[in-house]
């Protein structure tokens, strides 16, 4: 793989994604990895990421200097560029000059393999205080900015390159080109990594792992479980049984999508557990959000374990191979954030409802463990999973249960489901799905407001629209939806959904507001 060395900013994952977009497989390693650790992974190239520190600060993240003796093509970015300059004998200075945001970079000389052929002046995105004041011996300066004498450098002999700016962000004009030039032209790597190759490789691995044992999988209706299940099914067919727990907190049409469209397109053998009564029974009288989450999480596990016991007993009675494996839709960011990557501050929260306990007596199959979300979607499309599932926006495991503020009842679920279906339909019709990350629709069930409909006083509930734009759900901003679309959603909801006489818009960013209301 190409190894992205993480110096502790948010950029390592983005860089790893851009490398994969260039058709080369990448993984993230922490900057604390030694040269031996790195060599053991057989890297075909290294990329040193940006980071929050100054190379001269006490405790600033360092890199084992022996890494530069491995003979591996290396690209340093921002902080990684400075680490490289310092380690190889150049000079990094704190001049008090800072560059943040859009900056004009001027190519020096022919720009080398990294920048050759690109416009002489280009917009790049910067974020640094220190600067490289002198390139190490053997390096050629490839770009400058008004404030930075060495904004990019290269040593073609050793295949070492660096840029002060962030080529991985979209605000940088020729960023992806810089990354591709490094990978394809400088390091000579082919663009051969794509969804097809991932599917073929995973299918083989899963077959080898499973043998003739049987496997179960929990489907949630979301993208990750849908794709991991379909991938395992492609590998082992009916050795797999998928279990879908309908907790009664799904949105309109979701169960049908799984039971009909998903099954028809993948051929997965599916058992649906109708657990709505049980869930709603346990939720009776409960209004505290954390209490709701805990109940829903607990009941999900109970429902799943019940089916699992039945399947195990069935296999034993019929002399079938035993069930030994459980499919899990873990993604690469979860792996990196739970310690597989660097010393990045752990901002990730509590959201593991829908997750299963780890004391289940099964080994895990995690076919998406090395993948990012957009890659998972591409594979899902390749596997023929319907767009309505593969393109689905995030939806929380506890479902509509945490979008009814107040007690969850069947009646309230019906109201919320109807309002949510209208909002979703109108956003899709207006072509806005790509612009919003997700749009929770929330029923303020314990709030009443006065209205007037057809000359009558009404006393109904408000519905909240919470459209947000985000990259990763860690931070978000409220989406500036067009007024005519908001107006249409509002009109339709107040006209078509009983007991709702008011629609309000949530205009809070995250932080301070979370995306969900509970
Ligand atoms: P918050 O509300 O914390 O949500 O800003 C961030 C993202 O996580 C989703 N979310 C959940 N997803 N189980 C999940 O699978 C959960 O319990 C859960 N709670 C929130 C939320 O929809 C948003 O995308």
TrEMBL record:
<protein>
    <recommendedName>
        <fullName>GMP synthase [glutamine-hydrolyzing]</fullName>
        <ecNumber>6.3.5.2</ecNumber>
    </recommendedName>
</protein>
<dbReference type="Pfam" id="PF00958">
    <property type="entry name" value="GMP_synt_C"/>
</dbReference>
<dbReference type="Pfam" id="PF00117">
    <property type="entry name" value="GATase"/>
</dbReference>
<dbReference type="InterPro" id="IPR004739">
    <property type="entry name" value="GMP_synth_GATase"/>
</dbReference>
<dbReference type="InterPro" id="IPR001674">
    <property type="entry name" value="GMP_synth_C"/>
</dbReference>
<feature type="active site">
    <location>
        <position position="168"/>
    </location>
</feature>
<feature type="active site">
    <location>
        <position position="166"/>
    </location>
</feature>
<comment type="function">
    <text>Catalyzes the synthesis of GMP from XMP.</text>
</comment>
<keyword id="KW-0547">Nucleotide-binding</keyword>
<keyword id="KW-0436">Ligase</keyword>
<keyword id="KW-0332">GMP biosynthesis</keyword>
<comment type="subunit">
    <text>Homodimer.</text>
</comment>
<comment type="pathway">
    <text>Purine metabolism; GMP biosynthesis; GMP from XMP (L-Gln route): step 1/1.</text>
</comment>
<dbReference type="InterPro" id="IPR014729">
    <property type="entry name" value="Rossmann-like_a/b/a_fold"/>
</dbReference>
<dbReference type="InterPro" id="IPR017926">
    <property type="entry name" value="GATASE"/>
</dbReference>
<dbReference type="InterPro" id="IPR025777">
    <property type="entry name" value="GMPS_ATP_PPase_dom"/>
</dbReference>
<dbReference type="InterPro" id="IPR029062">
    <property type="entry name" value="Class_I_gatase-like"/>
</dbReference>
<keyword id="KW-0067">ATP-binding</keyword>
<dbReference type="InterPro" id="IPR022955">
    <property type="entry name" value="GMP_synthase"/>
</dbReference>
<keyword id="KW-0315">Glutamine amidotransferase</keyword>
<feature type="binding site">
    <location>
        <begin position="220"/>
        <end position="226"/>
    </location>
    <ligand>
        <name>ATP</name>
    </ligand>
</feature>
<feature type="domain" description="GMPS ATP-PPase">
    <location>
        <begin position="193"/>
        <end position="392"/>
    </location>
</feature>
<keyword id="KW-0658">Purine biosynthesis</keyword>
<feature type="active site" description="Nucleophile">
    <location>
        <position position="78"/>
    </location>
</feature>
